[in-house]
Specification:
The protein is built from 7 helices and 10 strands. It has 236 residues and is of the alpha+beta class.
Length: 236
């Protein structure tokens, strides 16, 4: 029971699903895995009666038109790293987070691997001050289609009805043009937010995902926005 409270109050299998939420919501195969296990009895929130599934209405913010004359000035990478933060690195990427995060344990990674294999998966260190645990993941996919926006337009309509896009915009992360998407979803009648930054790196698409219970999400949003500045693929 204690383990379930440490992981969003969910079972480890549900945590594995949420741990790879960026991939679940973007890659059709992972979405299929979510729906499959949802129908198999995992306690995802669902309508009490057999009513038609609600459709996602136009809560998506239109991507702003960028002014061509604006040229972001790059900041040296070392200056983007806050004091006392820890580096998490694989052969492909690195990212920095505060000391209250750690690498996900093997059980969580094994379960997550059934739905999508993040290159990096972090969880918040257990704390008595919170019943929930934040998750951070870095995943990748191959670029398909004519553009990044075309790829996202193709993928995101497949998100489950328990989730909805609440924000979508183009931002710059230290001069790199990036898509920033916020998805709100519900598990066991608890609301969560997933902040996803999407980078195009040649033929590779990177997804940097931050998941937290909705109140804690807004408390930690400045941390997430600082952390993504430290995301760096090996090719950068």
């Amino acid at each position: 029971m204690g383990d379930e409270r440490r992981f969003f109050g969910m079972t480890r299998m549900q945590t594995g699903i949420i741990g790879s939420l960026a991939a679940l919501l973007i890659l059709l195969s992972c979405v299929g895995g979510w729906l499959l296990f949802g129908n198999a009895g995992i306690a995802f929130s669902s309508p009490a009666t057999q009513t038609p599934q609600p459709t996602v209405t136009s809560a998506v913010v239109t991507l702003p038109t960028l002014t061509p004359t604006i040229t972001p000035t790059p900041i040296p990478y070392e200056r983007l790293i806050p004091a006392d933060w820890k580096q998490y690195k694989t052969s492909l990427v690195e990212i920095w987070m505060p000391g209250n995060f750690k690498l996900a344990d093997n059980k969580t990674k094994d379960i997550t691997a059934k739905f999508g294999v993040p290159d990096l998966l972090l969880t918040e260190v257990t704390s008595k001050s919170s019943a929930y645990t934040m998750l951070v993941s870095v995943s990748y996919d191959l670029m398909t289609g004519d553009s990044l926006d075309a790829l996202l337009d193709e993928k995101f309509p497949a998100i489950p009805y328990q989730a909805r896009i609440t924000d979508k915009r183009t931002v710059f992360v230290n001069t790199h043009e990036t898509r920033r998407i916020v998805i709100e979803f519900k598990v066991n009648n608890i609301d969560y937010n997933n902040l996803i930054y999407i980078f195009q790196d040649g033929s590779t698409i990177w997804y940097v995902s931050y998941v937290a219970q909705i109140a804690e999400f807004f408390d930690n949003l400045p941390v997430f926005e600082q952390s993504v500045q430290t995301f760096r693929p090996a090719s950068y």
